[in-house]
Every structure is written in C-alpha cells, then in structure tokens.
Amino acid sequence: MKDSIIRALKFIGLGFLEPLIRLINKEEPTKNTKEVFRKIIAPVASVFIFVGLWQLGSTALYNIEAEYKIEATLKSQGEAEAQKIKECMESGDPGCQPNTLPSPSQVYASYLTLLEDHRTIAADKKAFKEKTFEMNKKRVKQGKSVITYTGRPSFVDQIKTSLKTVFAGFLLALFIAVPIGVVIGLSSTLRGSISWIIQIFKPVSPVVWLLLVFMIVKTLTKNSEGDSAFIISFISVGLCSMWATLVNTAMGVSSVNTDYINVAKVLRLRPLQKIFKVILPASLPLIFTGLRITLSVAWMVLIAIELLAQSPGLGSFVWEEFQNGAMDSNSKIIVAMFVIGMIGFALDRIMLFIQNLISFEKETI
Amino acid sequence: MAILELKNVFKTYNPAKEYKGEILDNINLTIEEGEFVAIVGFSGSGKTTLVNLVNGLLKPTEGEVIFKGKPVEDTSHERGVIFQNYSLLPWLTVYQNIDMAIQEAFPKASKQEKDVRVKEYIEMVGLTHATNKRPKELSGGMRQRVSVARALCMDPEMIIMDEPLGALDALTRGNLQDEILKIWERNKRTALLITNDVDEAMYMADRIIPLKPGPNATLGPEFRVNIERPRDKTALNDNEEYKKTRLKIIEYLMDLGDAQAAESTATYELPELQPKDFRWDAN
Q1: Do A194 and A224 share a structural domain?
Q2: Which of A256, A342, B37, B172 lies at 20 to 30 Å from A21 by C-alpha?
Q3: B140, B129, B135: which is closest to B88 by C-alpha?
Q4: Domain presence at residue B116
Q5: Domain range for B200
Q6: Do B89 and A265 touch (CB under 8 A)?
Q7: Could A268 and B104 be called an inter-chain contact, meaning their C-beta atoms sit closer than 8 Å?
Q8: Digit-coded pLDDT (tens) for A183-240
Q9: Between chains, do B87 and A270 touch, taking CB under 8 Å as contact?
C-alpha cells in the first residue's frame, strides 16, 4: 500500500512527498525527519521568505510613491488637499492608493475578485445559453446562424483560450519539426544544406515571426471567415518554438549509438524498419528533451504574441489590464504572472510524465 | 572447401595520409567449412577491425575478403555476428529483439512459423522465463545469451564472435562456452572466435591463430588443437597435447609482448642542457 502510493507519487512527479509518507509510517524516523525538512519544509519556508521579502519591498515602494504623491498635491493644491489625500490613503480607500507594486494580500484579493468575476460571467453565460437554447433550435431549422454569447470573457476563459492556442502551436511544431528533424538527421548532406537556414531563423524574435505570419495569413484568409487572430497566433507560436525540437531531433537521429546501427546493418533491416525500430526509439530521449523545451518556449512566447496579435488569451488580458489602469490592475497582472508560471510548470511536468511513460531509460530529471 | 578467405588484407582508417595509422597489414586466413577457428590477441591489436572486415561492416583498404567464393561487399544473413557488448536494443524485450532478426531473415514465413522460431531459440538459450523482459532487467550472461540466440536464429552459415564472453565473470563464462559449443556441434556451422583468453580458445577451437599486436597487426603462425571433442574441461588440464600446445601459444604471445615492451622502453640519450639564466649553483 505505502510503496504503491510512493510509486504513484513519483510517477506523477510528486516524489518529494516520499519521506513524509515514510515518516507517517514510522520508518527510519531520524533519517526521514531530516528528509522531510530538506524536501518539504525548507522549500515551503523559502516560499514564505519570498512572500515576506515581497511584502517588505512593496511596502517600501508604497511609502515612496505615497510620499511623492502627497508632496505633489501639497505643491499644486495646497495643504488641505494634501491632508485629504493622506487621510484617504490611510483609510484604505482603493480610489486614492498610489500606483505601485501591489502587496501579496492585494494580489490575493485580486485573485478572489477574478474568481468571483468568473463565476458571475459563467452564470451569465449559462443563463444566456438556456435562454437562447430553444431559439437556436428554431434558427438551425430555419437555416439561420446560431446566436452565441458575445459577452466579456472571464479570466478562466482567457486561460482556456491560451491553452488552446499553445497546444495548437505545439502540435504544429511537433508535426513540422520532428519529421524534418528525422530527415535531416539521417542525411548529413541535407543537414549541411539546411543548417544555415536553421541558424538564421532560430534566434529571430517572436514579434518578427508574428509579423511574418501576419503578412502571409492575412492574404490567405482574405476570403474566408476563419478566426484569423487565432490562426496567426498559433502559427507564430509553432514557428517560434519548433527550433529546439528540430535541432534536438536532428542531433538525436544523427548520433544514434553505433552499436545499434551495427546491429541494424548486421540484421540487414530495411530502411523503414531501421528508422522505426532502431533510430527513432534510440533518439526518443533527445526528441523529448526538444519537445519539452518547445512547449516551454511556446508558452513563454504565447503571452507576447497574444499581446501583439490582439487575440484573446492571457497575453491580451495582461495588456488590457495594463492599459486599463484601474486601481487593482497591477495586482491582476501579478495574478496573471503567477498563473502563467504555474501553468508553465504544470505543462513541463506533463511532458516529463509522458516521457517517462514511453521512454526506455526510465529516468526523472 | 574454404568458406572464408582473407587475401593480403590491409586496412587503415585514414588512407589519405599515405598509409599511416595502419590497423591490419598483410592478413592471410583461410577457414574451412565446419571449422572452429579462434584468433587470440592482445587488446588493441585490431581484433574488432578484423571481425568487422569479415562480417562486412568494414571494407579492406587493399586485398580481398572472400566468402563462399564471392567478395564480401556488405553484411549478410549468412554471417551471424555476436558482439562483445551484446548490442541488444534496450527498448525491445527479449522476444522482440529476436523477432526483429527473424522478421528480416525469413520475411516469407507465416506469423505462426516466426513465433515458433522465436520461442524455439529463446528456449535453446534457456531464457523462456525472461521472454518479456527488457535487456536492462537481465544479467550480463543472460544478455549475451539473447545475443547468441539473435545471431543463430537467422540460420547463418558462419558465426562470428567478437570477444563474446569478455565482459562476463568466470563461472558464467564457462557455462556459456559449453552452450555455444553445444549449439555449434548440433549443426556444425563454421565459427570464428575472437578472444584474448588462450584457455577459452584452447577449449573451443580446432585451430588457434595469434594476432600480432598493432599497428600493422598481422596473423602469426597457426596452432592446431588436436584434441577429441567433446572436450572435458577438467580432464584437459592433464592432457599432454593440451599442455604442450598451450605452452607454445603462451610462449609465443609472451615473446610478442616482450618484444613490444622492449621496443617501447628503448632509452634515449638526453643531451645535458641547462637554461642560461637559471643555475642551480646561484653564484
């Protein structure tokens, strides 16, 4: 029972809980207490220290900004106004807070606001669907287009859109980079001939890719009614992030252990057999390393691309909040930052999980 | 009839540099059908290069390798190879590793025939209980057994063994020697064994040929082992013929080793030099 729990935890990347479970089972208490401290308590403590430092930093920034604001009011509008603003700040009224780095508690409050906002919008959406359900049925019968909800997307909706875009981009990268990587890995001539192109395009910024894709997709989708913002952003994400997979696949395929190649030769495997039974399995670890990098790069550039392509998602959420300048905008941006980070971390874990599932080397990093 | 012939084989890995860094030089070897030949040599003497020339992974720079009257151009199912480091594919199970060889060697056989054959060879090397295990879960001896089964299941006319037991402990080694001999005697395939162990060569082979150490490695004079098969390991130690031949081979190899050692420890007379501005007697 205990062992199977530990194995399951390790499998899903929660191996750090192992000593805690052993400790609960009263196994080697001294050793496991130390391990619990090292693997669980110390990391948790470091998170608290981080939050504490953040609190101190934001308080310091708040004070500087507040002082400046009062001084400025004093100069322009006189003592009475300055006193008013000071009182207003001390009362905690959000309307007159200085605009600076929000504190952890403000961010947490914003997080709750965003969740509440999501609930309201979701309920609204549901009500709308119920209301239009019958009507839509009729409209479909009459051959008219369906009425859809066009209200503001909630934060959670934005996350979903971003995930959709990043997966589309990731799949695009996968389907382009792996086959090309295998082909150029197999042929040193092709590898040589394409390497310049790869070297030149690899460091190009996501922004430039976006513009390039925009130029092409704009022309191609002129007459169709597709969601061109989505198409542009996912293609750009794919193109930005595929290079790691391409280079890793080519390297993996071209550097397969000569022992395996000799076996393939001695057994006289046919070319396709050789690729699928020897070369691809042997280079799988490197291909997966490439895919993991690709997914994390895709998630990273996605935000920038959404921001510029004005396609819905976390990127545009951040940008809109920044432009909006409402009193809790700053803390909402920080909430988005944490969400982006955590989703990125989760995506990497998922990739690692899949890698462990299919890899013959069975190792965790 | 000679099944394999090496005529004046010369091999270098960088032919551009006017034959510097030669590995093998002037190799002449004839192996008769059904014969068990062992080549004994020090490590680094070019044994693996010789094996790869015979199995077709490498081509000689000069000279010819002739198998059944035709020059060796490429690898072939007629020559099965057992590699020193087993070279099993780690992502395949024992069954799949052997199945892969059979799929290629007998593409026309029915699924069932192939399956029977795979299982037959797994049984032959005594690994039925490990059919669905991956190489990582097997011991070194078991891995080499899989490798033996993989080479033999293609029904080769000649088995080429490149230090097959070199990485195994003494006990496993003895067992596997017996097993390989048993399989060999069953249908008298031609066998070429490369080894660095004189006793192993004496126990298994009909003929032993030392490989003089490289660079410019070449074959030495052959020694015949005229001992009746099946040979008994314990009785061998008292066999006069065995003792005599073994001594001869070892003496020959020792001489080679001494000659090489003498060459490398040749003393050079150094000129007596001192830096101008640095003297021990600082006065």
Answers
A1: yes
A2: A342
A3: B135
A4: yes
A5: 1-76+185-261
A6: no
A7: yes
A8: 999 988 988 898 888 889 888 888 888 888 888 888 887 776 667 788 888 899 999 9
A9: no
Find the closest chain B residue to A282 by CA distance.
B91
Largest alpha-carbon pair distance within chain A? 94
- What is the CATH classification number for the domain harbouring B53? 3.40.50.300
- Per-position DSSP letters for B87-149, written without gaps between them: ---TTS-HHHHHHHHHHHH-TTS-HHHHHHHHHHHHHHTT-GGGTT--GGGS-HHHHHHHHHH
Q: How far is CA B277 from the centre of its chain?
A: 58
| Tokens found for residue A336 | 């988005």
The DSSP annotation for chain B comes to -EEEEEEEEEEES-GGGTS-SEEEEEEEEEEETT-EEEEEE-TTSSHHHHHHHHHTSS--SEEEEEETTEE--S--TTEEEE-TT----TTS-HHHHHHHHHHHH-TTS-HHHHHHHHHHHHHHTT-GGGTT--GGGS-HHHHHHHHHHHHHTT--SEEEEESTTTTS-HHHHHHHHHHHHHHHHHHT-EEEEEES-HHHHHHH-SEEEEE--SSSB-B---EE---PSSP-HHHHTT-HHHHHHHHHHHHHHHHHHHHHHHHHT---PPP----TT--SS--
Both tokens of B179, joined, read: 């097993």
Q: Which residue has the tokens 């894709």?
A: A213
Quick check: B207 and B224 in contact, CB under 8 A? yes
- Global ipTM: 0.80
Range of the domain at A116: 102-152
Q: How far is A43 from chain B (nearest CA, A)?
A: 35
Per-residue HEC secondary structure of A297-316 comes to: HHHHHHHHHHHHHCCCCHHH
> Is residue A239 domain-shared with residue A113, that is, in the same domain?
no
Q: How many contacts (CB atoms, under 8 Å) link A and B?
A: 51
Q: Is the dihedral of CA A146, A152, A154, A159 positive or negative?
A: positive
Q: How far apart are CA A293 and CA A282, in angstroms?
A: 19
Sequential pLDDT tens for chain B (283 residues): 688 888 888 888 776 666 566 678 888 888 988 889 999 887 777 888 888 889 888 888 888 888 988 888 888 888 989 988 888 998 889 999 999 999 888 888 899 999 999 998 898 888 899 999 888 888 888 898 899 889 888 888 899 998 888 778 888 888 888 888 888 888 788 899 998 888 888 888 889 998 887 667 788 888 888 888 778 888 888 888 888 888 888 888 888 877 777 766 656 677 777 767 665 665 4
Question: Per the CB < 8 Å rule, is A262 touching B57?
Answer: yes
A263 and B75: CB-CB below 8 Å?
no
- Judged by a CB distance cut-off of 8 A, whether residue A166 touches chain B is no
Is A107 within a domain?
yes
Nearest CB among A262, A267, A281 relative to B91 is that of A281
Contact (Cβ atoms closer than 8 angstroms) between residue B220 and residue B211: yes
Question: Does B266 fall in a domain?
Answer: no
| Alpha-carbon torsion, ordered A113, A115, A118, A122, to 10 deg | -130
A273 lies within 8 A of chain B by CB: yes
Maximal CA-CA distance, chain B:
94
Measure the CA–CA gap between A241 and A178, rounded to whole angstroms: 12
Put simply, the chain A residues between 224 and 263 with a CB less than 8 A from any chain B CB are: 259-260, 262-263
Q: How far is B192 from chain A (nearest CA, A)?
A: 16
Task: Return the closest-CA partner of residue B58 out of A197, A262, A102, A118.
Answer: A262
DSSP H helices, A91-146, are 104-142
Domain count, chain A: 3
**Which backbone phi and psi does A86 adopt, to 5 degrees?**
-60, -45
Same domain, A135 and A231: no
